[in-house]
Amino acid sequence: xxxxxxxxxxxxxxxxxxxxxxxxxxxxxxxxxxxxxxxxxxxxxxxxxxxxxxxxxxxxxxxxxxxxxxxxxxxxxxxxxxxxxxxxxxxxxxxxxxxxxxxxxxxxxxxxxxxxxxxxxxxxxxxxxxxxxxxxxxxxxxxxxxxxxxxxxxxxxxxxxxxxxxxxxxxxxxxxxxxxxxxxxxxxxxxxxxxxxxxxxxxxxxxxxxxxxxxxxxxxxxxxxxxxxxxxxxxxxxxxxxxxxxxxxxxxxxxxxxxxxxxxxxxxxxxxxxxxxxxxxxxxxxxxxxxxxxxxxxxxxxxxxxxxxxxxxxxxxxxxxxxxxxxxxxxxxxxxxxxxxxxxxxxxxxxxxxxxxxxxx
Length: 361
What we know:
By secondary structure, the chain is of the alpha/beta class. It folds into two domains: about 5-120 and about 225-355, Periplasmic binding protein-like II (D-Maltodextrin-Binding Protein, domain 2), CATH 3.40.190; about 125-220, Periplasmic binding protein-like II (D-Maltodextrin-Binding Protein, domain 2, 3-Layer(aba) Sandwich). About 40% of the residues lie in helices and about 15% in strands. The chain has 14 helices and twelve strands. The strands form three sheets. The protein has a five-stranded mixed β-sheet. Strands 8-7-9-6-10 form a five-stranded mixed β-sheet, with helices on both faces. The protein has a two-stranded antiparallel ribbon with strand order 1-12. The radius of gyration is 20 Å and the shape is globular.
């Protein structure tokens, strides 16, 4: 069943952390086990937090008997550190952990439960190199331009390097702010100036690179099946085991918000929600304010992604087999304890029954 819901390695960090059971929080308005859910992300970017903002503003968490749910951005840029917040009892959910890291931590015994997908693979990017390059292996020792070193484009390139037998952590130098909202020019301009030696692109940007004579080194669109999970929503397994009704209520609310955000006609409302988040960040100062100022500079000119990320069991199976081949988990690993998508399945069925297929109000 396909469910549409429109690096420095610290391998033992989460397992070593004391696995505290999240304390129950009572609420007069909530008949379910927990009224408040603490959610964290390792990123400041508003795109990682806007879904809960929409659900709050629309009253959809309240409809489910939940209190306000906000995502606390930790700015770790390291999923091992972010996931460790579950083990320390300081969070109930991690919003956007990279799927391969989640699988590795689960294999080491961390009590994790995947309840949804934040990002799934949708083929679009090609990897281009400087003139004279002929293959992915020519990127070894070179500078690779990305939006963020832990972002979507970097993830695709990392996977492409791994499949070519390279180590993304040692074999290339990652250069952020070369793509996306922070870039100083198009991918073509970045390569023409020599700011980096390789960069990924899609659509018109990719065509301009081709016409300018820059070689395509890899077709990242074919590396993975559509539906391959890139980032998971991960709960502490205790929350899922002891309060499944709460998790299901949370999933209903965020699925409504995801469906709302995926509709092109709501793009302006999504931008308003993101702006509110960033304006709140400005008042906090420090790294959050700095990130907010940079993002606000280009927020109004961003093109809506139109993404519809979804959970696909085939994609998860591919992920697990990939991790085995890379020897990141043992050959006997199956991930049986990790995937708890049954709660998402129930939430989707309930929403479709109430609002119609894909509906949210």
